[in-house]
Design a protein that fits this description.
about 325 residues; alpha/beta; 8 strands; globular
Length: about 325
């Protein structure tokens, strides 16, 4: 249902935008004409009436859009999975440009290769030097192909660990962005030590003395997500999901039928609300009705507030206290 609603809303948004631009253009013309020659003011009345009609149509379309979006306020788990995977949802590069300043990208694992599905570097957050690292997806098919659909190979996780080790050395807080279907399951990844790379990240992140905040922005599945998710605080966007594997994989294993993925979504307790209740997530970041893709700026504003609040709190802890708190969090999760 939500897919049909969002397609209808997208068409309405385009029409509203076109009418608003047209109306604004005509208004500018009216003002220009009035300034040039007062004698033409009488002829403006007819044009102004036409502009008013457009304004009325815009308001009607907005009301129709709002009515459609009302059905998106209470979503089922499978509908949240759909939104978590939406191709127009903001990704790590969008969050970096919207939340951080002075970003400097760092590439390569300094062992073998550069994995584009992990993106990271050094930046400032409210003037605080931080290390930012996360999964990278694209907004187009070409970008998704280049970034392997956000599925890292061992080189990606080793690059992430290299950046985090650097942050530990210089005392910079770490902020990670999780959005992946899982680690790449290909033969080459296994040959290069996929399991060892993920295990090493888990072990090292549990020992860091700097604050770590993980933000689940889309889908976070399996060890591929957890490999950069061992954090003091886990924040989740309202329609993000976080689970042991994808709903399709869960259904395939449990019932030998991937088509039952919607049923699996309910059983897996993978939504932000479920995970906040279970004590896995520490905060939920509100999204616009209909998903984060509808208004990036609103998402950035809400996330900025949550990130800053948690980071300031964590920075009051001693290095050993920061490490101990993180370890205790995962002992409680079990």
């Amino acid at each position: 249902m939500i897919e049909k609603i969002l397609k209808s809303v997208e068409k309405l948004d385009k029409k509203i935008s076109a009418l608003e631009k047209k109306a604004a253009g005509e208004t500018n013309e009216l003002v220009k004409t009035a300034i040039e020659c007062d004698e033409l003011l009488e002829g403006i009345e007819d044009e102004y009436e036409a502009w008013e009609i457009q304004g009325t149509e815009i308001e009607k379309l907005k009301k129709l859009r709002d009515c459609l979006l009302e059905d998106c306020e209470k979503l089922t788990p499978d509908e949240k999975v759909f939104l978590a995977r939406h191709p127009k949802r903001p990704h790590i590069e969008d969050f970096i440009s919207g939340l951080f300043t002075d970003f400097f990208e760092q590439k390569g694992d300094h062992l073998f290769d550069e994995d584009k599905s992990i993106f990271g570097g050094i930046a400032r957050f409210h003037g605080i030097p931080v290390t930012v690292v996360g999964h990278r997806k694209g907004h187009t098919m070409e970008e998704n192909m280049a970034y392997n659909f956000g599925m890292p190979c061992p080189e990606g996780y080793r690059k992430a660990l290299r950046l985090m080790n650097q942050a530990e050395k210089f005392g910079r807080p770490i902020i990670t962005f999780i959005d992946t279907p899982g680690a790449y399951p290909g033969l080459e990844a296994e040959e290069h030590g996929q399991g060892e790379a993920i295990a090493m990240n888990l072990a090292k992140m549990s020992q860091f003395h700097v604050p770590i905040i993980a933000v689940v922005t889309g889908e976070g599945n399996s060890g591929g997500a957890l490999a950069i998710g061992v954090a003091n605080r886990i924040l989740m966007l309202e329609n993000a999901v976080y689970s042991i594997l994808s709903p399709e994989g869960f259904a395939s294993i449990l019932w030998k039928d991937a088509d039952r993925h919607k049923e699996a979504c309910k059983l897996m307790k993978l939504t932000a609300d479920d995970l906040l209740e279970a004590g896995v997530a520490d905060a939920i970041v509100k999204e616009p009705v209909g998903g984060a893709q509808r208004n990036y700026e609103e998402v950035f504003k809400n996330l900025d507030k949550e990130l800053y609040s948690h980071l300031k709190e964590l920075m009051t802890l001693s290095p050993s206290g920061c490490k101990s708190e993180r370890q205790m969090k995962y002992r409680k999760i079990g």
